[in-house]
Amino acid sequence: MSSSDFYTSLHAQLAGLLSEERDWLANTANASALLFMELADINWTGFYFLRGDELILGPFQGKPACTRIPVGAGVCGTAVATGEAQLVEDVHEFPGHIACDAVSASEVVIPLYDGDRCLGVLDIDSPSLARFTEQDLAGLKGFAEVLLQNSDLSGA
């Protein structure tokens, strides 16, 4: 299956999961579980939500994680500070990387927006270097859009 077909299917699965529910907590829990189940070669997937000047851990799948991340710190905090998705081939080369799990080697982080307001991030880690591609980045941005369109994340 091509990357494009994979993400089209993943987006459809998420839309189906969320079709009867708008609650942000339930939907981010199911979204993280779906990603953990469907993506190969990952060791953590989940959400952090912005509270003031820090990100607070939300629903996730994987080992226990850092509970709070300051805006501007690590890959997640950088995504919020810059407003841009982060595709990191080697987290050990990323300035200020926060190692919640020493096994993680690469990471992709997608900021979640309601208009101009950043709500938080979708964060996915892999134990393999350069696991994520530009196609993954585009597909995961689309995944986040499906989540945002089908959930009331403004209350998150």
From TrEMBL:
GO cellular component: cytosol
Domain of life: Bacteria
Domain GAF: 33-145
Matching Pfam families: GAF
GO molecular function terms listed in the Swiss-Prot or TrEMBL record: L-methionine-(R)-S-oxide reductase activity
UniProt keyword list: Oxidoreductase
PROSITE patterns xrefs: UPF0067
Enzyme class at the top of the EC tree: oxidoreductase
The EC number(s) this enzyme carries: 1.8.4.14
Xref: InterPro entries: FRMsr_CS, GAF, GAF-like_dom_sf, Phosphatase_reg/MetRdx
SUPFAM superfamilies linked: GAF domain-like
Keyword Zinc-finger: no
Annotated family: Belongs to the free Met sulfoxide reductase family.
Database matches in PANTHER family: FREE METHIONINE-R-SULFOXIDE REDUCTASE, GAF/PUTATIVE CYTOSKELETAL PROTEIN
Protein's name in the database: Free methionine-R-sulfoxide reductase
Lineage: Bacteria, Pseudomonadati, Pseudomonadota, Gammaproteobacteria, Cellvibrionales
Encoding gene (name): msrC
